[in-house]
Amino acid sequence: MRPFLSILSISLILFLSCQKALTETQKKEYLAKGKQIAKTTANHLGGELTKHMKAGGVSEAIPYCNGQAGPLTQEMSEKFKVAIKRTSHKLRNSNNAPTANEIAILEQFKELKATNTTLKPVVALDDKGHPHFYAPIIVQKKCLACHGVIGDSMKPATDSIIKTLYPKDKATGFHEGDLRGIWSIAFESK
Ligand code: HEC
Questions:
Q1: At 157, is the pLDDT very low, low, confident or very high (cuts 50, 70, 90)?
Q2: CB-ligand 1 contact for 155 (6 Å cutoff)
């Protein structure tokens, strides 16, 4: 039994030491890339959203988000040759459901937020050994029309429109500065 156990522990040590780790330079590189991709995608989504809000208010902007948020994120993924995703602990679209790794990051960000720590993007290796970028998405004033407190910062009529498209919507009740979710960007391994 003993030799077997020591072989087992040696193999485990070997296995763990063979796992790739990112160097500090690689981490910096992926952080910079991730930030740039998240910012470009956010600006693109935000710009379109503002345009539709100005043109026809929430009743025009909601169907736009419903139909275009996914395809637009996909388009940006193809442009940057990565897999871009927005996910949350309080979901609207169940297609955006978090993976186990994303749940762990969301939990970590929620805990830090509870202690008033400023949230910063992180880079880590995923299950496949690929670099992965995560960044917090913070609620701004302009988000409240569709993610705010119903009957206060968000109109009940808006909630009704949202509920017809997303009957299980959990993405309301937010205040400015709250954690809305995360950007999750998977890089191909080099
Ligand atoms: C006009 C209404 C509207 C506004 C304003 C709005 N959203 Fe959304 N949001 C939506 C809709 C609708 C979806 C679902 C999109 C889909 O089906 O992919 C959504 C989805 C999301 C998601 C994806 C995760 C999930 O729960 O499905 C995030 C993150 C998000 N919104 C953040 C924000 C932030 C941050 C702002 C402000 C900068 C904002 N939203 C402003 C309507 C809105």
A1: very high
A2: no
Tell me the residue type at 95.
Answer: N
Q: What ranges do the domains of the chain cover?
A: 22-186
User: Could you tell me the distance, in angstroms and rounded to a whole number, from the CA of residue 120 to the centre of ligand 1?
Assistant: 21
Residue 134 near residue 184, CB atoms below 8 Å: yes
Q: Which two tokens stand for residue 7?
A: 């072989």
Q: Is 91 in the pocket of ligand 1 (CB under 6 A)?
A: yes
Q: Which of ligand 1's atoms lies nearest the C-alpha of 181?
A: 29
62 in Cβ contact with 161 (< 8 Å):
yes
Tell me what the pLDDT averaged over the chain comes to.
Answer: 92
- CB-based burial label for 84 (10 Å; 0-12, 13-18, 19+): buried
Nearest-CA residue for atom 17 of ligand 1: 66
Whole-number Å distance between alpha carbons of 94 and 167: 10
Q: Which of 148, 151, 118 shows the shortest CA–CA distance to 135?
A: 118
Please spell the DSSP secondary structure of 16-68, one letter per residue.
HHHS----HHHHHHHHHHHHHHHHHHHHHHHHHHHHHHHHH-HHHHHHHHHHH
pTM of the model: 0.90
